[in-house]
Specification:
By secondary structure, the protein is α+β, with helices and mostly antiparallel strands. The chain has eight helices and eight strands. The longest helix has 55 residues, at 9-63.
């Protein structure tokens, strides 16, 4: 199925079509395997994260001489959460399907371009795995796919962690008064998370406290590093830096670089 191994245009098109059929099947199979592995790993992560969250709540209770049992979600809940893990509102499985289609489309485009240009097999391989082409280093289809996959894995892990925490919080609303948005403030923080840094919401009603931003559980965008944390039992605020305080502590050059 070497698309460049024949000279007649009809034979070349037939070989190219056969090559793309084989690759499409391989890509779909690989991404289905990735999706299944990810779902199993996330279910284990959900259980670990929920246990850790419950421990934090118990420790917080002891700090204010309050005995807290910290209810945990059921195993069925973990399985459901893993299956329904959402990344920006869409199921994780849908994202992997989209990644599969994107990877194949990029592969097909590069192979068609290379065949049309009469490139050798080695040239075509470089289009896929990366390397020097026309004197320039190009990342290749697979390197771009790896970057997309890394972003999806990081975001889905954050989704699972926050889903587990929220499940524990919802099971213990009788001792949680509110939630605060904790942003990791540095040069990579998004405008969305800067605006939400240290914002609070009522635990029961989810209504904002002192602002108008709606209650949302992170991640709020790809590679989001923010989390929602419960206000300390007894209503004490968590120790964190607000966005205004953080921005005012930056140099003028850093402020310009961050905000324009």
């Amino acid at each position: 199925i070497d698309a460049g191994g024949v000279t007649r245009p009809s034979a070349r098109r037939a070989r190219l079509q056969r090559l793309l059929e084989v690759i499409r099947a391989d890509v779909r199979k690989a991404y289905r395997r990735i999706g299944g592995l990810t779902a199993r790993e996330l279910q284990e992560l959900l259980e670990v994260e929920a246990q850790a969250t419950a421990t934090i709540l118990r420790d917080a209770g002891r700090a204010v001489e309050f005995t807290l049992g910290a209810s945990l979600p059921t195993p069925a809940t973990y399985a459901a959460l893993a299956e329904d893990t959402l990344v920006q509102g869409a199921p994780l499985s849908s994202w992997w399907e989209a990644q599969s289609a994107r990877t194949f489309d990029a592969f097909a485009q590069q192979v068609r371009l290379g065949v049309a240009a009469g490139e050798t097999v080695d040239d075509l391989v470089r289009r896929i795995v990366g390397g020097k082409r026309a004197g320039q280093v190009v990342p290749g289809v697979m390197e771009v796919s790896r970057r997309h996959a890394r972003t999806l894995v990081l975001t889905s892990v954050a989704s699972a962690q926050n889903a587990a925490r929220e499940a524990v919080y919802e099971a213990n609303l009788d001792v949680i008064e509110g939630f605060a948005h904790l942003s990791r403030l540095d040069s990579r923080t998004s405008d969305i998370c800067i605006a939400r840094a240290d914002k609070r919401w009522d635990a029961a009603t989810k209504k904002p406290i002192g602002h108008s931003l709606p209650y949302q559980v992170p991640p709020l965008h790809p590679r989001c590093r923010s989390v929602l944390i419960p206000l300390d039992i007894g209503g004490r605020p968590p120790a964190q830096t607000g966005a205004d305080e953080w921005i005012n502590g930056l140099s003028r050059a850093e402020q310009d670089d961050l905000l324009g």
